[in-house]
Automatic annotation (TrEMBL), chains A, B:
Gene3D superfamilies: Winged helix-like DNA-binding domain superfamily/Winged helix DNA-binding domain. It comes from the Bacteria. This is Metalloregulator ArsR/SmtB family transcription factor. Residues 1-88 form the HTH arsR-type domain.
Amino acid sequence: MRRDIFQAIADPTRRAIIALLAMQAMTPNGIAEHFDTTRQAISKHLRILTECELLKQEHQGREIFYHLEIQKMKEIDKWLEQFRKLWETRFDQLDDVLSNLQKNKK
Amino acid sequence: MRRDIFQAIADPTRRAIIALLAMQAMTPNGIAEHFDTTRQAISKHLRILTECELLKQEHQGREIFYHLEIQKMKEIDKWLEQFRKLWETRFDQLDDVLSNLQKNKK
DNA sequence: AATTTGCGAAAACAAACGGTTGCATATATA
DNA sequence: TATATATGCAACCGTTTGTTTTCGCAAATT
């Protein structure tokens, strides 16, 4: 079973859950209220997110609060890093083109 | 058919293709040589990546060069933005803790 | 003109995914 | 103790995914 962070954020519901939990820790029932599916479906998403360590559980009586492990999100940022330089460079090149156009106007 | 950039980068082969094409434009056969699958499998990945506008084709005779539309990658960065503030804040808090520990040492 | 090469598209298939239903377990409450 | 609540887990189901195989087409080569 493939279970990495990229597969985790591929699902729009899971991305919404991540965004929700970025604000505050919540219980499965609390989370499920925000969506149009069953609690069990949400529970499955929570399991996937927990398995790739994007979420952590905090048991509190019979309730389980899930909170976001924000540090894990940096893995995506890290992967993106190799491209960031590239698209910034292209931007610089575009800037060059634009300033040249400006020059030629004069 | 869901076809967004998050689903596109969910597959490790597709991520590898993206990384490859970040260096230089390549043909399907050229790309396939780097992997342990058939050209047709790669071709399907290329179709998916092209459909969500991560790649663009450049026909050259009977060859087709695929090149990365690096700007599209910024969409991931854009989504990540809402969390970046968060994890940087947590870092600042950690810095505070560390500097307090330093103070107490004195 | 015939053949080779580079490519995409369709069909087929096992595996994975996302969802629902039903049930088991643990904690709170009457 | 009996009941209600919060949750996880297994079984099942239809759909999607990733791959291979086969085919067809267009451009290059002979």
